[in-house]
Amino acid sequence: YNKKCIMNFFKILTITTATCILGSCSNFDKINTNPDASTQVSSKLLATGAIAGLVKPGSGAGYVDHMFISKYIAWGEGARGAQYNDFYRTGFGSYVNLTDYQLMADLAAESDKDAYEGLALFLKAYTLFDLTMSVGDIPCSEILQGEDGLLTPKYDSQKDVCMYILQILDSAYEKMSRASDFEGDFIFGGDARQWSKVITAYQMRVLMQLSLKVDDVDLKVAERFQSVYNRNMLMESNSDNLQLTFSDKSGQYFPFHSSNNKHWAYAMVSDYLVEMMKENHDYRLFYYAKPSQVKLDEGISSSSWDAFVGVDPTAPISNVKEAYATRNFSGLNARYIDYIPGEPFIRIGYSEQNFILAEAALRGWIKEDPSYFYKKAIRGSFDFINENTPDDEIYHYGNKLTEEIINTFLANPNIQLTGNFETDLELIMKQKYIASFMQLPWMPYYDYRRTGLPKFPINPETSLNFNAPDKIPVRWQYPESEISYNKANVEEAIQRQYGGSDEVNKLMWILQK
């Protein structure tokens, strides 16, 4: 979710109000809709809204907000807080969605129960995990009890929250695996098998984010991962991605298209990413960025690697603005700006799944060759670009991703796994980082937070993380609304976890070795 937007939203709608609403909406049997359409709430309608809420990204500048933390881009308009490691308070606004998920399951006909209950459990797990990954301990066991007068839910430990999430994901998969196809799904047309693959991929994401807790006897991370893998219900191609596809129809344009926002020109691709891709002649660079106008004016061909110039996202903002003013940088490729459908927006994807499997194999959680999944993941990234980009020189500057180019890259000695754990983990995380460009909000940051890889640039001279200028913060602060309306419980959680200091450099349980 867009944490900053939710923070602002939740200044008005607090979690306390939300828990009341969530617990007292049993009479919500009508919605205000088109008078020519059905006005009866149904599982179908609620599923459509819930899925849309999950896959829809931010618009305009909000579409790229998550990319500043991970040092993908700099911003020519002015300083962006996350670019300089300034973390704000988050919000708990997504709690309000849980009532619709529960209602969707409750209203389902008996023949559709498994599908809608499975979907509701998956969405609940996704929401809770997103929240706990932001701050640490969160309300969990006492939510949705406003009808019983419980307006200030206690905070559960992050371990207990994660245990609960793993349990309901198992239930979600069990229900969806035996479900019939259902209505209201505009992503997969209600195909229950497709959703079973999504749930499986997401379970593996959650378990990998728990990698530092692999020795926890209650979680049994490695054993759980192997069990999920052994289902043989994996995504098999990009067609299995949980993604939102855009089009040239009104209201369905790519969110960062120039007609949808006035900020597109300010995005400046970072030198960190550009140099990482140049180092191995990664042709995806020609699809991610555009040549520097300064280099073109010097007579360098747009098809040349030398035409692409990154900007240090940690440099003083005056330096960044100077590069922008003199056009000495590579902006985003025209396929993000001028091509109306852009590319689909991935929440959970095939390439990501295979990077996770490569890491799991490297860690010994599954008895497979890490290189097999690593290469599948990289190829999946190349295929995704090819599948969603017209073969036009303006989108690749004469460097089309041919099968020969893809195979040459996959055979590049510099990207081969070596058999050394540390070296191979860094290679996997670098390629996962490159493949996640403009996709999978917050996940590259969460991977960095968990592994320290890839090694994001940090400039203590410009960092706004004043308590630890040589580090990137590892969490957001709790919402102001909780401090105002659920003070005793949030303060108890802060004391229990962080010694009473709601500070952005404090390690939550999931990050403690």
Index terms:
3% strand, 513 residues, 6 strands, globular, 45% helix, two-stranded antiparallel sheet, disordered N terminus, mainly alpha, 22 helices, two-stranded antiparallel ribbon
Could you explain how this protein is built, in words?
By secondary structure, the chain is mostly helical. It contains 22 helices and 6 strands. It has helices at residues 3-9, 15-23, 43-55, 66-69, 98-107, 113-135, 158-177, 192-209, 221-229, 271-279, 285-288, 293-297, 317-325, 334-337, 350-363, 370-387, 393-396, 403-410, 421-435, 443-451, 480-485, 487-498; strands spanning 73-75, 138-139, 155-156, 242-244, 267-269, 345-348. α6 (113-135) runs parallel beside α8 (192-209), α15 (350-363) runs antiparallel to α19 (421-435) and α16 packs parallel to α19. It is globular. The model is unreliable at 1-38 (pLDDT under 50).
Short description:
By secondary structure, this protein is mainly alpha-helical.
Fold topology:
Elements: H1 3-9, H2 15-23, H3 43-55, H4 66-69, E1 73-75, H5 98-107, H6 113-135, E2 138-139, E3 155-156, H7 158-177, H8 192-209, H9 221-229, E4 242-244, E5 267-269, H10 271-279, H11 285-288, H12 293-297, H13 317-325, H14 334-337, E6 345-348, H15 350-363, H16 370-387, H17 393-396, H18 403-410, H19 421-435, H20 443-451, H21 480-485, H22 487-498
Antiparallel strand pairs: 1-5, 2-3, 4-6
Helix pairs in contact: 3-5, 3-6, 5-6, 6-7, 6-8, 7-8, 8-9, 8-15, 15-16, 15-19, 16-19
